[in-house]
Amino acid sequence: MGVRVVGVAGSLRTTSATLMAVRYALVGAEECGAQVEVLDLAAYNLPFLGREQERTAVMAVERFLTDLRGADGIILGSPEIHGSISGVLKNALDLTNRELFEGKMLGIIGVAGGRMGASETLNQLRTIGRSLQAWVVPTQVSIGAVDEAFDSRGEPADQEIGERLKLVGRQVAHFARLHKCENHLQFMKDWEGAVGTDDRGQSIHAGR
């Protein structure tokens, strides 16, 4: 059974390292047989929360929600700004609801300008995912020193980072397929055995 995995990058810049990271993670999902698509927040022209019912905003919000609703898995990426996720991504998520995320697989990626990485962003994305009742896959990626992280083609400069990004995509696609096929016994067996690592190399076990 086919699955659809979408990526959302919390940046409006076309040359964003966050967007490059999300695109590369989607390569892993595609290699796992998923149909993939980047949902470009700049193209939606989303309003701020509180103005979503204004006449000019309704169609933009509905188009974004429809594209999310049709996904079996979602990969979220955000730059770390002042110790938090970007306002662009937070606003987009604020316009959604639990119904759009409940039961879906969620991969998370954080990028930062400093070499310490984006651990705060990852923690917040994981918390948001769980509050929306999504299944947050164990592998997550923190990328530091983003000015040096990708080459001009959007390829990761560090092979290990590239493999981890692809692994995020593969896990999202794999578990989305099992969940969609209602192969619950195999899903739980694989889920309970899935282990990822955080940006400090510590193990992360699968969990909602």
Keywords:
alpha/beta, 19% strand, 7 strands, two-stranded antiparallel ribbon, Rossmann fold
In short:
By secondary structure, this protein is α/β, with parallel strands linked by helices.
List the helices and strands and how they pair.
Layout: E1 4-9, H1 17-31, E2 35-38, H2 41-44, H3 55-69, E3 73-79, H4 87-94, H5 98-101, E4 105-111, H6 119-131, E5 135-143, H7 159-180, H8 184-193, E6 195-197, E7 203-205
Parallel strand pairs: 1-2, 1-3, 3-4, 4-5
Antiparallel strand pairs: 6-7
Helix pairs in contact: 1-7
Characterization of this structure:
The chain has 208 residues and is of the alpha/beta class. The protein has helices spanning 17-31, 41-44, 55-69, 87-94, 98-101, 119-131, 159-180, 184-193; strands at 4-9, 35-38, 73-79, 105-111, 135-143, 195-197, 203-205. The chain has a 5-stranded parallel β-sheet with strand order 2-1-3-4-5, with helices on both faces. Strands 6-7 form a two-stranded antiparallel ribbon. The radius of gyration is 16 Å and the shape is globular. It starts with a strand and ends with a strand.
